[in-house]
ParB/RepB/Spo0J family partition protein (Heminiphilus faecis), 634 residues
Amino acid sequence: MEATAIQTNTANVQEATISLALIQPSNYNPRKNFDEQSLTELADSISCQGILHAIGVRPITGTDRYEIVYGERRYRASLIAGKEDIKATVYTDLSDDEAEEKAIAENLHRQDITPMEEAETLKAAIDSGRYDYATLSTQIGRSETYIRTRIKLTTLIPEIARLIDTEEITVAVATEISRYGVDIQTDVYNSHLKDGVTYNDWRGMNASNVARLIEKNYTTDLSRYRFDKSACASCPFNTINLLLFCEDGCEGNCSNPSCLREKHIGYLTNKAVEMLNEHPTANFCHSEYDLNERVNALLTEMGYDIEKLSGYLTPYPCEPAVPQSDRFDTEEEYAEAVKAYEDRVEAHREKCADITAKAEAGEISLYITIGRNDVTLGYMATPAKPSENGNNPKAEIAKLEAKDKRNKEIAVERTIEDTKKKILEADITETKFSQDEDKMIYFFLLSSLRKEHYEAVGLTDRKSHSALNDSEKMTIIANLNAKTKAIIRRDFLIDNFKGAYRDNAIADLLLSFAKKHMPEELANIEAEYNEIYEKRHQRIEERKALLAKDTEPEATEPEAEPTTEEATPDTPEVAPEAENSPEEEPMPEAEPTTEEATPDTSEAETEATQYEPTEEEAEAILTEEERYCEEAVA
């Protein structure tokens, strides 16, 4: 069905009725979620009253179809209502930017827009570049603060964003949570807002209480750290800039732990290097219980050695504090404090000079201690050394060479570690398997090579029976041939056959391997254990037959019932011979006459009831091996 023009308002705008089959949604509609229930309600309204407000569309170049500019909800409801066409305003000359602008404006003026849809629409308007906060504020009649706060909601994790649209938390609470990063949001949701949380549930709390709880539980007091915090004063993650109730003089709390950690590590690293520049003879160290592994790793990468401290350091003297004039009541008191300060400075200078002289003489050693939260300078007495090594240039050169060697080792170690991580990300699935890679495979397979095959793979002069070292493996793979490859591969298989047990796949592979390489030996092994099994199986069948006979008297009891009435009522059981003489008590001597007295009872039944095997017979019936079989079956 073609579009039917009804009225032309301008040269580029037409009112028309268009077939729904010719219309398709756009990909820039700010509205992404459509509630099924509200769509159904709108569809019912359309069925009764029709479309009250036309949707906006524009032609798709080169086709007879149209793209929705605004009104996608009405379009969807019309489809549900079974309509064939819809009233539309056709914009015949509308650019992509203009179409997006109209879609944004139309969505912002809807009455049923959700908080998250509004936030996404406002963000799209700002991101488009056609609005700034001031012009958008004028366009929609909202303050700039309102717009900024709403846009901040777009930083919420999806789980919390859904709680706003379902009205399980207020927009004000969501706004407080949106001030923080993803890590904090995730923990707040899992611990306090998720379905099923019973302890410390934050749903129903007002925004002020939620804000205080987040600051208390998820932020760190900046006053505990010594790095330059000038940038923190205006940081959006500083609670001073998030909350309205910070006390005067408060530096705030940081809600971005990763940034805080990096600043702290950078500060400690720089302080350590600067301290070493001031005291070149000092050594870096750390204690066993107070260390900062990240700072130590950075200093190591920079080529510095860090010792593990054994013993206690004497703190390096601190500079005296300068007196402040405003802390004294009179000029005389301040002058006396200045004089005392100058004396302390002179004493401090003399003490530092003495420490430096002793350090240069080798009497003491200076140490820069890398702690968890600070870097400090201290010293301790140097252990006595042999006099010939005291100021020996050769010893110092050897020490420097050892340090240089270690630095090279560190570079190689770091290279290998990073390569192991990156190689997991490399896409080599389409690359042809090379000969070098084939040799690498054999290098690792050699770990399973048996000692009796060392000579067969070329190690003719080897006397030790210990495992192969890397050098020997490299020698072997450098001289591989068909024979040595077969030996290495089969030893690898044999080594892995150790994991075979009763009914796993490795056992099947083991038997298949043995059938190919040792068929006679395998046949003999199978015959031996099959013979044992058959004997045990026969004994078990015989025992089962005896046990089965033991149950047969129960089936013949009804035939014997008429004779039990003659038995003495006080006698719980009647022996078979008592059936013919009810007035006499059964005697043990009468047992041999049982067969004659009970013609209805078979010999097998009587034997199963009364027979008790001797110990020798029981042992013959149930050997220790059979007991093992029964336990295995159980």
Remarks:
- The chain has 24 helices and 13 strands.
